[in-house]
Automatic annotation (TrEMBL):
Span of domain AN1-type: 291-340
Spans annotated as Disordered: 204-261, 367-400
UniProt name for this protein: UBC core domain-containing protein
Keywords for this protein: Metal-binding, Zinc, Zinc-finger
One of the Pfam families matching this protein, by short name: zf-AN1
Species this chain originates from: Glossina palpalis gambiensis
Entry-linked InterPro entries: AN1-like_Znf, UBC, UBQ-conjugating_enzyme/RWD, Znf_AN1
Residues covered by the UBC core domain: 17-173
Keyword check for Metal-binding: yes
Amino acid sequence: MTHDGNKAEDKILTTIQQEYKILAEYKMIEAEKIGGIYVIPSFGNSLLWYGVLFVRQGFYAEGVFRFNMLLPDKYPDDNTVPTVIFQNEIYHPLICPFTGTMDLSHAFPQWRCGEDHIWQLLKYMQYIFNEPLDCVRLANITKWLNTEAFELISQNRAGFITKVKDCVNCSKEHVYDKPPTDDPHYITFDEYNEEVHGPIKQRIREGKDPMPGSTATGPKGLSWVKPEHKDEKAVAASDANQVTSNEGVEEPPLFPGKRPNYGTNNTLELLEKIPSKVVETKLDDVLKAVKDVDNLCDYTRCKAKTNLIGHTCEYCQGRYCFKHGLPEVHGCGEAAKNGERKRFLHPKPAKTIKQEEELAKAKKKLNAKLKDMQVARMQKTPGGKSDVASKTSKKKPNKT
């Protein structure tokens, strides 16, 4: 029963970690401000995303193409590339005319965890529609999903443009179709109504809030992220810098008032922060105080523990809970954005990536060996012999 319970806990923890990473991907897309493309995860399944692409230039200009994006079950730790399936009939060399599947093999031969992101995939999607000629010329592909479209764009440009225009007109006819699913996150559009949309349109042009008088404070978007308390405001994708309220929660007895943001894991520095009256008491209390502070989230006013579930920021080296682990939430948003852009513009060579993977495996193997040696030392008796050796020595010698 205990084994089954541990399995269930591990499964829940894995799911939480995965959805946290998906939330981070969603926030990266918002930070990039990719114009003309809209995506949102499904209400019931964070691995299924709905999207709509508005093409604003090139042969496919004025096209409105719906697509679904399926993330692998172990995303992002799996090297499997997400699958993009268009719901419209699209005439393009990189899109299968029968299934609507988009070929991503040229840009993403395999998915590199921590280096490849969904916002990059979306920008590549925009690129193949805005610049289909460059896409065909530069792509190192021997087998095209739509061979007819490839041959037409290479040999008969006018014929290709005619086919594309028919595709664009067809997509515009289905913009207001009824959704094929009852998922509340499926993106739908209403026909323009001057009475309803006119005032909103005018306020947007004037740079004002399109929905005046809105007092909604509940979670926005990302339905699978639930607030912990009724009075808390969830950190939504549209408001990453919103501070979650923890008023009414009792402070730890050793630290009356607002808990300082120590922002360090150094035990000596933590010990200096503890009140002197605590240090004068028993040593066990001091050690417990240091441990409590060291295991708390470094975000100001947050009481969440990070010893079991936590995230160390690669930019500020602070230790944060899942709620405040995103760089955009705890103040490292600009550093994260610059870092991702640098990695995208200057990717590491395949040889360097392979060396880093081998080094990580060697470190993991060394840590496992050190742990086994530590366990072996702990099992030894005070005399220096292990428990097995001491039991063997107590046996009577065999009579000859």
